[in-house]
Write a structure and sequence with these properties.
alpha/beta
Length: 293
């Protein structure tokens, strides 16, 4: 079982990998009452969400592994005592016994599949990384249904090259914005949840990062790319009007929503191409017709 995803999914730094990245990546959105979608379309204002708010409860999910797995009974106690002594060589016997009991409880949680076994690690992910999901396909009928408000919303295309420029500028400020292509698999990634006094190892950090862009294979039709922003959760980041290449309005969007969007695009002096999705008359597909404004 592979516990770390292949390096082919690593598209960073983006400016050195643009030939491997679609030139435009799209975000499907509804016309929300707060106007966040219109802001994305007019000035590239993206919201980086926590995975805990996603529609798939298996986002960031992983299989916990531990060195304890090969032990039970008295062998487990002996193993836990040895580990406790290694990490706390000067500890009193009462402290060692306390650590052994905690280890036994964790061992049982893992065996039972108790969510409490992985809860602390999940919280690190949920609170530490903001995610902005994109796809290279603006004509996906399922995506329009899922995320484009049943064709009443919009699809905003962002230029990868402009995102790459922001990535480089952010790095100079010690802010880490990464792009990964989602890896689709039948088996969740593994993470060793044995964390010593020295903190997580490099391997554990790689495993932890891998959960951010791992999804069940049945989602493969979304062909998802993820912008992952370290320590930037539940916040908006503005990529600017130059980042927005095109805006596609859903085939069932209302005239009122269209008017609001076009008005904001004009006020922001956006140069994005605006199109209207229409149902193809010859196949299960959408055609896009440019709107002059």
């Amino acid at each position: 079982m592979n516990s770390i995803l292949p390096k082919s999914n690593d598209l960073n730094p983006m400016d050195e990998n643009l030939e491997r990245i679609p030139s435009i990546l799209y975000k499907y959105r509804s016309f929300d009452s707060c106007g966040h979608s219109v802001q994305l379309a007019s000035n590239g204002e993206a919201y980086f969400a926590s995975a805990k708010d996603f529609n798939d409860p298996f986002d960031n999910y992983f299989i916990p592994t531990t060195e304890m797995s090969g032990y039970d009974g008295e062998d487990l106690v002996a193993f836990l005592r040895e580990k406790a002594r290694q990490h706390y060589p000067g500890a009193y016997e009462s402290k060692i016994q306390q650590l052994v009991e905690l280890g036994k409880k964790q061992h049982q949680r893992i065996k039972d599949g108790d969510p409490k076994a992985i809860g602390p690690v999940l919280q690190v992910q949920y609170n530490g990384f903001g995610i902005f999901s994109l796809t290279p396909d603006p004509g996906s009928l399922p995506m329009w249904a899922y995320y484009g408000d049943c064709h009443k919303g919009m699809c905003v295309g962002l230029r990868s090259a402009v995102i790459a420029q922001h990535q480089s500028a952010l790095l100079r400020q010690n802010m880490f914005l990464m792009l990964h292509k989602v890896d689709y698999s039948n088996i969740p990634p593994e993470i060793c949840i044995d964390i010593g006094t020295g903190g997580m190892t490099v391997t554990q950090r790689d495993q932890l990062e891998a959960t951010l862009y791992a999804k069940y294979v049945h989602w493969k039709h979304e062909d998802e790319y993820r912008l992952i922003f370290n320590r930037y959760v539940g916040r908006n980041y503005i990529f600017g009007t130059d980042a927005v290449a095109e805006v596609i309005i859903g085939s069932k969007a209302s005239e009122e929503d269209m008017a609001v969007l076009l008005g904001q695009l004009n006020r922001s002096k956006s140069k994005a191409t605006v199109k209207r999705a229409v149902r193809s008359q010859s196949q299960y597909a959408l055609d896009f017709k440019e709107i002059q404004r």
